[in-house]
UniProtKB/TrEMBL annotation:
The chain crosses the membrane at residues 6-28, 40-64, 70-95, 116-139, 159-181, 193-213. It is a multi-pass membrane protein. It is found in: Cell membrane. PROSITE patterns: THIOREDOXIN_2. Gene3D superfamilies: Galactose-binding domain-like, Glutaredoxin. The keyword Transmembrane applies. Keywords: Cell membrane, Cytochrome c-type biogenesis, Membrane, Transmembrane, Transmembrane helix. This is Cytochrome c biogenesis protein DipZ. It holds the Pfam family Thioredoxin_10. The keyword Protein biosynthesis does not apply.
Length: 573
């Protein structure tokens, strides 16, 4: 119930977002009509259309994205005609004849009435196809939940509730606007001029959407204006997960609940299927991870170390592989990564997020410590606190009756991509290349799911990035269509990683990296040489830069010498 309230409030706040501006003229264009027969059907059509399209898009249907794109083109044409009819009464009569006739037949009303509920609802559908609400924290939370939880009545209900909130605020604007325009007509005798002004605004709204301002400039302004309010609502309605309990010497660990079922695993590696019941009597460490996650990779040496050190003393380590990207759902990809990363303990493939949801987990990596009675006694999210985590393991094993446990702690001396991150708090944030979660992109409008030429701007500010060459940007990656394309990022951090994959046919893709326009030399990463050369051979995380000294701001560029590469996300260390 609280999440529904949050979704509704998030929709209501949409009216405060500058990116809603292109939609408002379509709403106000009906403000002089009866609300119940015009405004309300239009708002309902808009809300339902948005909920359906957003649900399908969140569930990863590429066909739905294409269908919505074509629907937007049709809707822009329809609403452009609406703007023209407001400018000219003669044109309005000519254009509206077939639509009025169809609406009258559908609503079984006389031709003399001229007000069709179906016609208003049709305008609402068109407006809903154009409506691209700003992906602020609340809508981002809803869409992420939809992607993780899959198709369900709850998914559609949440998005419909969000749309209803937006329709509510727009409905209030419609009612107030109707009174304002009515007053202007009566007091100024300027009804014709008001109608023409609305026509101009409608055409301006169509132009803004056609130019991508609703999903570009205005969206970024919107995030700045409403993001803080939305985040406060999220924190109030859905409190953050419980913090890690402070360990106190001599005191027992608290009980945080029972270990959920493992039955949802789609496959097991390194072990036959395990169950919560079969693990009774053992101390269990459950590690949620995914193989392209740099935070997970940096924590793996400790998890492997604990598994080896305490496996003969009653500890069972289970890696729950919950994929972030589609390619991480491929069992063959995961099996190769498990082998390459030296993971020899049981790994459950959680492609349907069943175990993830059972633990109510939200993080990669996440560690849950379970006693022999099947009770969760401690948890830790993210990297760090490794010694405290090993103390928890030792405490649970001791309570379970284990004696003569090996002393000391697992080594902190790890090399390569597994080395601990730098302590630079200003290092660049994780940055996604696909349009679903992309931020800080510069260099023009992104053409979703369509091939387009991109050009890198002359200058980039810190944490900004751009594409160069001929690319197709999809929801979770960008694919290079012609050799010679590049990605440029002005970053800060010791390490720069990029999740990459070869073309669909699996052919390797050669690339060359430069830093500040020069070969990286001593600053090259594990997957490049000193001249910046490397090859994408599989879908995984590639370490492209490791600065030998410091973590200062640098200009990174990777140029691909072959077509077909797929780029997913940057991470830094």
């Amino acid at each position: 119930m609280l999440v529904l309230i949050l979704a509704y409030l998030g929709g209501v706040l949409t009216i405060l977002s500058p990116c809603i501006l292109p939609v408002l003229p379509f709403v106000f264009a009906r403000s002089d009509r009866p609300f119940m027969r015009n405004g309300l059907p239009m708002l309902l059509g808009m809300a339902i259309t948005f909920a359906v399209v957003a649900t399908l898009a969140a569930l990863g249907g590429g066909w739905a994205v294409h269908a919505n794109q074509y629907g937007r083109y049709v809707a822009m044409v329809v609403l452009a005609f609406l703007g023209l009819t407001l400018l000219s009464t003669h044109l309005a009569e000519w254009i509206s004849r077939p639509f009025v006739a169809l609406g009258n037949r559908l609503s079984q009303r006389s031709a003399g009435d001229g007000e069709s509920i179906w016609g208003a609802a049709g305008l609402g559908v068109a407006t809903g196809l154009l409506w691209a609400p700003c992906a602020g924290p609340i809508l981002g939370l809803l869409l992420t939940g939809a992607a993780l939880n899959g198709a369900s009545v709850q998914t559609t209900l949440l998005l419909l509730t969000y749309a209803a909130g937006a329709a509510t605020s727009l409905g209030l604007a419609l009612l107030i606007g109707g009174k304002v325009f009515g007053l202007m007509k009566r007091s100024l005798g300027a009804g014709e001029w008001v109608r023409r002004a609305l026509g101009v605004l409608v055409l301006c709204g169509v132009a803004a959407i056609a130019l991508g301002l609703d999903t570009g400039l205005l969206t970024r302004v919107s995030l700045a204006s409403t993001g803080g309010i939305e985040q406060k609502l999220i924190n109030a309605v859905r409190p953050a997960p419980a913090p890690e309990a402070a360990l106190k010497a001599g005191e027992p660990l608290p009980v945080e609940g029972q270990m959920p079922s493992l039955a949802g695993a789609t496959q097991w590696l390194n072990s036959p299927p395990l169950t919560s019941e079969s693990l009774r009597g053992k101390v269990v460490l459950v590690d949620f991870w995914t193989y392209s996650c740099i935070n997970c990779i940096r924590s793996l040496p400790y998890v492997r170390g604990w598994a080896d050190k305490y496996k003969d003393h009653g500890l069972v380590v289970i890696g729950v592989h919950a994929p972030e990207f589609a390619f991480e759902k491929d069992p063959a990809n995961v099996a190769k990564a498990v082998k390459d990363l030296g993971v020899d303990y049981p790994v459950a493939l959680d492609n349907d997020y069943a175990i993830w949801k059972g633990f109510n987990n939200e993080y990669w990596p996440a560690h849950y410590f379970i006693d022999p009675a099947g009770q969760i006694r401690h948890h830790h999210f993210g990297e760090g606190n490794y010694r405290e985590s090993e103390d928890v393991i030792r405490q649970l094993l001791t309570v379970a009756g284990q004696k003569n446990l090996p002393g000391g702690y697992v080594s902190d001396n790890h090399q390569g991509v597994e080395a601990a991150a730098s302590n630079d708090p200003t290092r660049s944030p994780e940055t996604y290349v696909g349009y679903a979660r992309a931020q800080n992109f510069v260099g023009g409008r992104v053409a979703n799911d369509e091939e387009q030429d991109y050009r890198v701007p002359g200058t980039l500010a810190a944490d900004q990035w751009s594409l160069g060459g001929h690319w197709t940007v999809r929801d979770e990656n960008a694919q290079l269509e012609q050799a010679g394309g590049s990605i440029v990022y002005r970053f800060r951090g010791r390490d720069l990683h990029l999740v990459l994959g070869p073309a669909g046919d699996g052919k390797p893709v050669r690339f060359r990296v430069t830093i500040d326009g020069k070969a990286p030399g001593a600053d090259h990463g594990m997957d490049t040489d000193a001249d910046g050369n490397g090859t994408v051979t599989s879908q995984r995380l590639y370490q492209l830069v490791r600065q030998a000294s410091g973590s200062g701001e640098r200009l990174f560029q990777i140029t691909f010498l072959d077509p077909g590469v797929q780029a997913y996300a940057f991470t830094f260390g």
